[in-house]
Amino acid sequence: MPGLMRKRFVDVTAELIDAHPRLAVLTADLTAKAFDGVRARHPDRVVNVGIREQLLISMAGGLALAGVRPIAHSFAPFLVERPFEQIKLDLNHQGVGAVLVSAGGSYDIANSGRSHQSPGDVALLATLPDWTIQVPGHTDEAEAQLRAAAVTDDLVYLRLSNRSNTRAYVGAEEGFTTLRTGKRGVVLVVGPLADNVLAATDGLDVTVLYATRIRPFDNRTLRAAASGQDDLAIVLVEPYLAGTSVAEVTTALRGLRHRVLGLGVGREELRHYGSTRQHDIAHGLDAAGLRRSIANFLEE
Q1: Which InterPro entries does the protein's record reference (predicted)?
Q2: For the sheet containing 259-265, what is the strand order?
Q3: Cis omega (within 30 of 0) on the bond before 216?
Q4: Which of 68, 209, 211, 231 has the fewest other C-beta atoms within 10 Å?
């Protein structure tokens, strides 16, 4: 069954297709049947290309060149990693925009094996210029980001997850949101790991910032949060490859002496299927594992 974010994506996209004649949605079999209703109303703007992800992106680029605003959807490894050359050439190089909406996160569907896991998608896409990369932690945040992306001509990557925080944070789509204040360091958490980080930092004298938009990076808010710290220790907690945004932190804090710990999905492949929670524990991204890593870093 699709996660709540993916269901909301389908519902909102169908509404947007009805309301905006410039919009089109492209699928590569994944979630295609969920669009049957809107496809019946707009068969020219709801297209399933089959299991042809390179074609998915190339068609998005061609539609964008013709003035259409394409929304392309698949699992993250099939939407970003497999057709990366087409993203580079048919979108970036052509100077056109699109909305790429992925599902599955890093290992939300761990029982499907390594082929369906993509912890490196954000790091890979961030090598290209001009992308807005959004990692919502709640269905309401995902909807707000999708609605905003649909009416622009920008390059937007919306990374959906099967998991969700218990609440949405208003305004988080525009920059980092302060969830907690403290003096011994700053913990920046991205998207659906916010609940785990809040539990992990309970009782610790740290500032917790929350991000659903990780590119462009909110240098101003991070620098402001760092300015009042007794110990400029920065912990970055990302639900994809560990260290993906460490260079962004360094840029934001240029000229300030600081130390950074990047937590996330480890580089070593886990050769077991397991559940999402078991993968969290293995990568130290459950509340207990995060608590150990953060507390130990603050004591160094």
Answers
A1: PDH/Transketolase, THDP-binding, Transketo_C/PFOR_II, Transketolase-like_Pyr-bd
A2: 177-180, 207-211, 186-190, 233-241, 259-265
A3: yes
A4: 231
